[in-house]
Write a structure and sequence with these properties.
The structure holds two protein chains of two kinds. Chain A contains seven helices and ten strands. By secondary structure, chain A is α/β, with parallel strands linked by helices. The two termini of chain A are 12 Å apart. In chain B, a hairpin with a 5-residue loop joins strand 6 and strand 7. Chain B is built from nine helices and 13 strands. Chain B is 47% helix and 19% strand. The interface between A and B is medium-sized, with 26 and 21 residues.
Chain lengths: 230, 374
């Protein structure tokens, strides 16, 4: 197995629900190696997104240990968590979450601005990222003028532009048709191979599953099956 | 209402508040500056020497408060020191009697900017002058003949006829209301009080010691005006605070709405790695733009408006008379650079503070709550 970059041990996540608590994750133990192309699979409410949020340092575990690139998520301050996300983790959302007032170029530029790269470096990295997703000709457009597939490609470029070790994709193809889903997944797979980026998907989309090299089935916050494919 | 329209409405309201605050503070400075100036040049000059027992509030016994300046009469030059004798009396005119303070003054004096030279006018009677408020309340006019009744130093009532030879047209109530001015020697003669005066008003050039007379400087003499000015400023400050609070509240409300509307955008930025502090800074700066644009807009129309009012003045007219204060009818507001700078800083700081509060709240947003779904 390749080098472990994410380690999850005894992860429990509870959410308050009125006067009671809802257990979203119940004793999860997982390891993710570098360059994986893995999916968290399960129905709604099975805990897929919750795992992504915790691994992405957007949320904290209630119990257990989650280590990402050697960082204990529970011990991160908001500042160090932001730094971890900024440097090492890219996010792709179901609804793209592009900033409508900015152009394609500016949306892709945002993570680099936060990292403090100079203008020339930013420009080169952005052009590379837009080339990967084949959107160089749309760089000056605003998100409102793009199709769903194009918007998601911009989101992929934004996640990949800083060349993170980990990309967390939450239902990335849920709003796309078959052709666009195919294009996006092919592109992510090639980036995974080319840049050795670890991709973790939360999905229940059959189209995605065909591409996964590892499928982790979740049911009611527990790992039901963890299967790997060559 | 759209966010853009709302933002511009806030900017316009803020600019109005900004200009209003500067205008009102400048106006107040103008009013009280004018009051001080007018009172000084027409009543106090550079200060007064008071007779030992003189109390300007004690009108009933004021006729007792005089003393001799015979030993120092050589210093009583019309351009340096002006003795004034004050006594209560009664005016009889057109079948009406009106109590009044009779003031004897040297007609040739130039210590105060009073047109006392008219007291040298040719008349078969004692030349007298009054202010326009006195003319109104006592129903007197230029050329009217009236009878003045006074009690002399022996307590004997005496009466003489006088002619109104001049009616002062300024609004200085403290040398006008209830007062009638005649030549000092005439009043001294009426009262059998040669070389006696109640007060001696002096010019800046007067530098003599006056034994037995108590000197009151301008700080003392203008203390009431300064106190009134201070009290009015406190009262006005409450109004500025209310006006500024309303503008700040509108901006706070807009910022809260904007932040609520942009939660997903902020959640995305946090997910991309933006730090809490940067989110706070970003939205505080955004709110600060309101202050910048409000102030700039205010300056664009405010500078010509303030310049016009400060050079042309504002005509208070009859209103100044009714206010019962020593004001000239035209007031020139005073807009100093310091006033504009201070107002700008106060407005900018308050708007920054109200922008910071929503920014602080949103920086603690949990992005997982907003990133999923439409």
């Amino acid at each position: 197995m390749s080098k472990t970059i994410i380690k999850i041990e005894g992860l429990v996540k509870r959410f308050p629900m009125g006067n009671r608590e809802f257990t979203a994750l119940d004793g999860i133990n997982l390891k993710f190696g570098q360059g994986e192309f893995t999916g968290l699979i399960g129905p709604s409410g099975s805990g897929k997104t919750t795992i992504l949020n915790i691994v992405g340092s957007l949320d904290n575990p209630s119990e257990g240990l989650v280590k990402v690139l050697g960082n204990d998520i529970a011990k991160l301050t908001s500042k160090t968590a932001a730094k971890l996300r900024n440097k090492h983790i890219g996010f792709i959302f179901q609804t793209y979450n592009l900033l409508p007032v900015y152009t394609v170029y500016e949306n892709v530029e945002l993570p680099l601005l936060l990292l403090g790269y100079d203008k020339d470096t930013r420009e080169k990295m952005i052009m590379d990222a837009l080339e990967w997703v084949d959107l160089l000709d749309k760089k000056d457009l605003r998100p409102a003028t793009l199709s769903g597939g194009e918007s998601q490609r911009v989101a992929v470029a934004r996640a990949m532009v800083k060349r993170p070790e980990i990309v967390l994709a939450d239902e990335p193809t849920a709003n796309l048709d078959s052709e666009n889903s195919f294009n996006i997944l092919e592109m992510m797979l090639s980036l995974n191979k080319e840049l050795k980026t670890t991709f973790i998907f939360a999905t229940h989309d059959e189209k995605v599953m065909k591409y996964l090299r590892r499928k982790i089935h979740l049911i009611d916050g527990k790992v039901a099956k963890d299967e790997s494919f060559k | 209402m759209g966010a853009g329209k709302r933002a511009w409405l806030n900017i316009i309201v803020l600019s109005l508040v900004y200009v209003m605050i500067i205008f009102m503070v400048g106006m107040m400075k103008g009013v009280f500056g004018n009051m001080e100036h007018e009172t000084r040049v027409k009543e106090f000059a550079n200060g007064q020497f008071w007779s030992e027992k003189y109390d300007p509030q004690d009108i009933i016994n004021i006729r007792e408060y005089h003393q001799s300046y015979e030993d120092i009469k050589m210093h009583m030059r019309p351009d340096l020191a002006c003795p004034i004798l004050i006594t209560p009396g009664t005016i009889y005119s057109d079948g009406r009697s009106t109590p009044a303070l009779l003031k004897g003054i040297i007609p040739e004096q130039s210590v105060m900017e009073l047109e006392t030279i008219h007291l040298l006018s040719d008349s078969d009677f004692i030349p007298a002058m009054i202010g326009k408020k006195m003319a109104k309340t006592a129903n007197l006019a230029l050329g009217d003949i009236l009878t003045l009744q006074v009690r002399d130093s022996d307590g004997v009532f005496d009466a003489v006829d006088a002619e109104i030879v001049y009616v002062m047209q300024h609004e200085i109530q403290s040398v006008d209301a209830g007062q009638i001015w005649i030549a000092l020697d005439r009043l001294q003669s009426l009262l059998n009080l040669d070389y006696e005066a109640t007060i001696i008003t002096v010019s800046k050039e007067f530098d003599q010691e006056m034994e037995g007379w108590e000197f009151k400087d301008l700080d003392f003499l203008l203390a009431d005006i300064k106190l009134l000015s201070f009290q009015k400023q406190i009262g006005a400050s409450v109004m500025y605070i209310i006006m500024l609070s309303l503008a700040a509240l509108a901006i706070f409300d807009t910022q809260m709405l904007a932040i609520f509307r942009r939660r997903k955008e902020i959640g995305t930025l946090i997910a991309l790695g933006m730090r809490q502090g940067y989110v706070k800074l970003l939205f505080t700066i955004e709110g600060f733009y309101y202050a910048i644009f409000g102030i700039l807009l205010g300056l664009i129309y405010g500078i010509p408006l303030l310049y016009f009012t400060s050079t042309k003045g504002i005509n208070y007219g009859e209103f100044a008379e009714d206010m019962g204060m020593n004001l000239s009818s035209i007031i020139y507001p005073v807009f100093s650079f310091k006033l504009i700078l201070n107002s700008t800083i106060v407005v900018a700081l308050i708007i920054m503070a109200v922008s910071y509060l929503p920014a602080k709240k949103i920086s603690k947003l949990n992005p997982t709550q907003v990133l999923k779904g439409e």
